[in-house]
UniProtKB/TrEMBL annotation:
Domain of life: Bacteria
Pfam families xref list: THAP4_heme-bd
PANTHER family assigned: PEROXYNITRITE ISOMERASE THAP4 (PTHR15854:SF4), THAP4 PROTEIN (PTHR15854)
Family according to the record: Belongs to the nitrobindin family.
Name the record gives this protein: Ferric nitrobindin-like protein
Motif (GXWXGXG): 21-27
InterPro entries attached to this UniProt entry: Calycin, Nb(III)_bact/plant, Nitrobindin, THAP4-like_heme-bd
Species for this entry: Pseudokineococcus marinus
Every THAP4-like heme-binding domain range: 13-168
Gene3D superfamilies cross-referenced by the UniProt entry: 2.40.128.20
Amino acid sequence: MPFEIRADLPASLVPLAWMEGRWEGAGVVGYDDVPERRFGQEVLMAHDGLGGLAYRAQSWYLDDEGQPVGPMSSESGVWRTGDDGSGGVQVELLLAQPEGAVEIYLGRATGTKVELSTDLVARTSTSTGTYTAAQRLYGAVEGDLLWALDVATPTTAMRSYASARLKKV
């Protein structure tokens, strides 16, 4: 599915233009002692007017019939890009979560794929999170936005945590 690059989009954000918009879909989450569950998600990404791509994601658990049954998580932040020094596109993702965590991801954009790893995970004293590192993968497949999140904890090596397939709406 082709995407449109808005005329007012800064040149630095062109590598992420395919991500801009409102996306909805479903995925699966599960890790160690957390049983696998389905979830729904809405993601909004739009130029913030300051050179970044504003990001907001809201997720909720789904029952066996695919109906929402309660909140799961939310996060917000900003995507930024720059030259990685080798002619490629460096991507930064800065995220905040109401559970008391902030994350800084660094990575690269290649076509309609973005691969990121945490450079920093910081938590408040009341945070409910336990992960120490994470990796994210975003890509466009058949016009949909697919993403995957892997996490590591103090007792578990990096492994799959959540993934979803979202359609542009």
